[in-house]
């Protein structure tokens, strides 16, 4: 991201992170976003997950999956989101929430606050 460190009080990442091509790509996008967030700031991320449709997915490698709706996405799960929350030195501003779209895909909302 071409922004300076600690540039924003709020960053909204809606349906972006699941286009990562691999874990390394996902982490690069996530850490660049977090770097641009001010201490005390908030990250609102909405991204595809496997939560609730784990048995309906076809793994493609590199953290990417074929979803029942025919799309390919990089998927996270609750354990990964909690791991990254800790790694980022953030905390959940509210619980992780997932919407299951007729067992075709699941979209998860992950809201973090960056500690001071």
Features:
single chain; 116 residues; alpha+beta; five-stranded mixed beta sheet; three-stranded antiparallel beta sheet; 2 helices; 8 strands; 20% helix
Structural features, described:
There is one protein chain. The protein starts with 7 loop residues before the first strand and ends with a strand. With 116 residues, the chain is of the alpha+beta class. It has helices at residues 23-35, 78-87, and strands at 8-14, 37-49, 58-61, 64-66, 72-74, 90-92, 97-101, 105-114. The chain has 2 helices and 8 strands.
Order of helices and strands: EHEEEEHEEE
Based on Cα principal axes, name the global outline: globular
- Briefly note the structural class of the backbone: alpha+beta
> What is the straight-line distance between the termini?
22 Å
What share of the residues does DSSP label as strand, in percent? 35-45%
The helical percent reads 10-25%
């Amino acid at each position: 991201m071409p922004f300076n460190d600690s540039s924003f009080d709020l960053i909204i990442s809606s349906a972006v992170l699941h286009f990562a091509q691999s874990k390394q790509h996902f982490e690069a996008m996530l850490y660049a976003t977090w770097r641009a967030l001010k201490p005390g700031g908030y990250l609102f991320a909405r991204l595809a997950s496997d939560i609730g449709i784990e048995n309906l997915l076809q793994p493609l490698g590199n953290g990417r999956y074929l979803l029942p709706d025919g799309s390919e996405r990089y998927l996270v799960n609750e354990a990964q989101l909690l791991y990254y929350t800790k790694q980022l030195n953030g905390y959940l501003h509210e619980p992780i929430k997932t919407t299951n779209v007729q067992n075709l895909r699941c979209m998860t909302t992950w809201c973090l606050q960056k500690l001071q």
